[in-house]
């Protein structure tokens, strides 16, 4: 095997690949643009929905408003974001039906003995009806509860004062809890789950089209024979092509990592004020090197598997349908990072894709267990080498190359 | 010089068992002579030529091309031959110049040698106008010229053409036929396969009739006609094979 031939083949295939629009879309455009846009779109939509609903004034109806003590009535009237509609507006109509139809957001029912019961210190009741299917109605219920609990506190305080008892009796002791996890770990828990999944998928997708084009594409174009009769060996062709696919996979993975971190740190931050600190993922050099180390052999496996499938396929279309099936085989194990409670151990470290997913997840939350990393790297590298050898075997086999 | 010696190729098929695609075929092609392998589809022409070009390994027998054994040193044979077939394609996203350069490098040529050869071939084939356009944008005639340039970038002493005109329009196939003639005039050894009798009559100095993997007869067109007592190759073919 001559290095100069491999370099020649690599350069030619890389040029060819970079001129392919499909490859560019999957290798560059989707990792860079689509993910941040998607995430930003989703989170801004969510945030704007929530703030909109929260800021909007909710309309409520109090059945038996006149039974309310004067004090509570004025508290309702002054409560921000609540507006009381008179019950006489709905004269002769069923208030429950009106609520269900969404004509107002909540119904408060007060019994006629409410004020006098309070006076006499009898336990009494206020009922709130709301529609849990409507997010706005849900928030309204919260607001009503806030008003009522403020009033409740006032009454308790008043009664205790009358009896000359300190309110401290209600809270014999206080509790404080403090979080000791570093920010990175919290962020890792929240986003460490989704990041590895996306990186692995992007890595696979980036390698997908070049792989199909580089072998099945040669068959379809009728260029395969011209390669076979040239003095470069079949092994050189396989290695040259393999490296191109590997590179596109790694590039796609890193672009997606970069753009994900960028969008999490700079875009989403503005949208979720207050939560911003928790979201910021600080990727230090160690983490980036680790991600590179773990992605490289994984991309090697992807390249080998994709290339051998592509060599086997008779046409571009045939290769595409195999790759679609393979896609599922990658998505499922990559999904492991999203499952809570899946812990790293030596057997997990041996399984390709799963190991990369878990190691990246842990690394993002700041814990790197080098023994598992080492096992995973070794396992993936061996597998990548096996797939490469397999590609070479197939590329040398007449019954595969000239499959009828 | 190409000498095929009892070339045999057996394919294994799951449903049909063993298939003898080529069965003990022997012939000799001299330099400066166009040798035509004539036979219907499925006769074993393509398989024979693929063995000569080292794309396939013979099951038994061998061929000697310019003194090098196809079965023993396929790697060495490859720089001795140029290969072109009707359905060889191009890399659509490369230009003719890049295409020829790539193959020049694969054949181990130096940079300056490649540039020199490219200039000469592009001038000879009148390709300068589209030398830097993308292959996918070219007309079929232009594409054929690129394929020709690719196949002879290393100036091989022997040329193998596998049904080179199949599926081509009149202009493109004329380009090919002229090119085959030129190769012959330059003293190269030329072997080509076809199922078109008229093409063989027009082009070949020597013809081998191949059918069901076996070489039935060999000789100049004139000799074959005389032997069978017919006045055209088609009847001669039927007579030779039909018996």
How many separate structural domains of chain B?
A: 1
Q: Per CATH, what is the topology of chain B?
A: Rossmann fold
Q: Please give the number of β-strands of chain A.
A: 4
Query: Distance between termini of chain B?
Result: 32 Å
Shape of chain A: elongated
**Given the structure, what is the number of helices of chain A?**
17
Q: Helix/strand-derived class of chain B?
A: alpha/beta
Strands of chain B, count? 10
Please state the CA-atom Rg of chain A, rounded to the nearest Å.
32 Å
**Helicity level of chain A:** 55-70%
Most extensive interface: pair and counts?
A-B, 24 and 32 residues
Number of helices in the DSSP assignment of chain B = 9
Q: What is the share of helical residues of chain B? A: 25-40%
List SSEs of chain A in N-to-C order: HHEHEHEHEHHHHHHHHHHHH
The largest pleated sheet of chain A is described as:
4 strands, mixed
> Class by helix and strand content of chain A?
mainly alpha
- Residue stretches of chain B low in confidence (pLDDT < 50, at least 5 long) are none
Task: State the CATH class of chain B.
Answer: Alpha Beta
Task: Quickly describe the structure.
Chain A contains 17 helices and 4 strands. Chain A has 404 residues and is mainly α. Chain A is elongated and about 105 Å long.
């Amino acid at each position: 095997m001559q290095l100069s031939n491999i370099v020649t083949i690599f350069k030619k295939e890389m040029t060819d690949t970079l001129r392919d629009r499909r490859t560019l879309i999957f290798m560059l455009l989707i990792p860079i643009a689509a993910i941040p846009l998607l995430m930003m779109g989703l989170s801004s939509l969510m945030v704007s929905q929530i703030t909109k609903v929260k800021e909007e004034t909710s309309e409520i109806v109090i059945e038996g408003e006149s039974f309310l003590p004067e004090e509570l009535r004025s508290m309702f009237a002054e409560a921000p974001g609540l507006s009381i509609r008179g019950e006489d507006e709905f004269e002769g109509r069923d208030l429950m039906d009106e609520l269900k139809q969404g004509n107002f957001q909540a119904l408060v029912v007060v019994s006629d003995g409410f004020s006098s019961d309070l006076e006499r210190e009898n336990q009494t009741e206020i009922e709130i009806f709301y529609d849990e299917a409507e997010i706005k109605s849900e928030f309204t219920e919260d607001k009503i509860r806030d008003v009522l609990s403020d009033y409740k506190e006032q009454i308790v305080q008043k009664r205790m004062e009358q009896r000359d008892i300190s309110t401290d009796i209600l809270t014999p002791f206080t509790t404080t809890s403090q979080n000791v996890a570093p920010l990175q770990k919290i962020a890792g828990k929240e986003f460490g789950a989704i990041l590895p999944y996306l990186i692995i998928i992007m890595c696979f997708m980036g390698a997908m089209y070049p792989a199909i084009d580089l072998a099945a594409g040669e068959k379809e174009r009728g260029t395969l024979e011209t390669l076979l009769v040239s003095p470069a060996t079949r092994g050189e062709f396989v290695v040259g092509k393999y490296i191109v696919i590997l590179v596109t996979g790694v590039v796609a993975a890193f672009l997606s990592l970069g753009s994900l971190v960028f969008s999490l740190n700079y875009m989403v931050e503005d949208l979720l004020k207050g939560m911003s600190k928790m979201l910021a993922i600080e990727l230090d050099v160690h983490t980036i090197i680790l991600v590179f180390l773990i992605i490289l052999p994984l991309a090697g496996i992807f390249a080998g598997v994709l290339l051998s499938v592509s060599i086997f396929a008779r046409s571009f279309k045939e290769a595409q349908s195999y790759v679609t099936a393979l896609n599922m085989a990658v998505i499922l194990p990559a999904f492991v990072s999203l499952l809570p409670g899946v812990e790293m151990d030596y057997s997990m470290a041996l399984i390709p894709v799963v190991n990369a997913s878990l190691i990246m997840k842990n690394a993002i939350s700041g814990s790197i267990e080098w023994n598992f990393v080492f096992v995973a790297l070794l396992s993936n590298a061996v597998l990548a080498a096996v797939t490469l050898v397999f590609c070479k075997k197939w590329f040398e086999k007449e019954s595969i190359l000239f499959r009828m | 010089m190409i000498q095929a010696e009892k070339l045999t190729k057996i394919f294994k098929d799951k449903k049909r068992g063993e298939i003898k695609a080529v069965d003990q075929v022997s012939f000799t092609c001299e330099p400066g002579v166009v040798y035509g392998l004539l036979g219907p589809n499925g006769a074993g022409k393509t398989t024979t030529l693929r063995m000569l070009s080292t794309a396939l390994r013979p099951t038994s027998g061998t061929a000697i091309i310019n003194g090098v054994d196809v079965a023993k040193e396929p790697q060495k044979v490859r720089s001795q031959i140029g290969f072109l077939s009707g359905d060889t394609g191009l890399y659509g996203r490369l230009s003719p110049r890049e295409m020829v350069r790539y193959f020049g490098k694969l054949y181990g040529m130096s940079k300056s040698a490649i540039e020199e050869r490219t200039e000469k071939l592009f001038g000879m084939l009148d390709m300068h106008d589209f030398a830097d356009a993308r292959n996918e944008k070219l007309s079929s005639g232009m594409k054929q010229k690129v394929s020709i340039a690719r196949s002879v970038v290393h100036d091989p002493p022997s040329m193998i053409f596998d049904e080179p005109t199949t599926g081509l329009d009149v202009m493109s196939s004329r380009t090919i036929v002229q090119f085959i003639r030129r190769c012959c005039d330059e003293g190269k050894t030329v072997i080509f396969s076809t199922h078109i009798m008229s093409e063989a009559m027009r082009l070949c100095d020597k013809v081998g009739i191949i059918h069901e993997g076996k070489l039935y007869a060999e000789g100049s067109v004139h000799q074959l006609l005389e032997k069978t007592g017919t006045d055209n190759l088609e009847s001669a073919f039927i007579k030779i094979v039909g018996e």
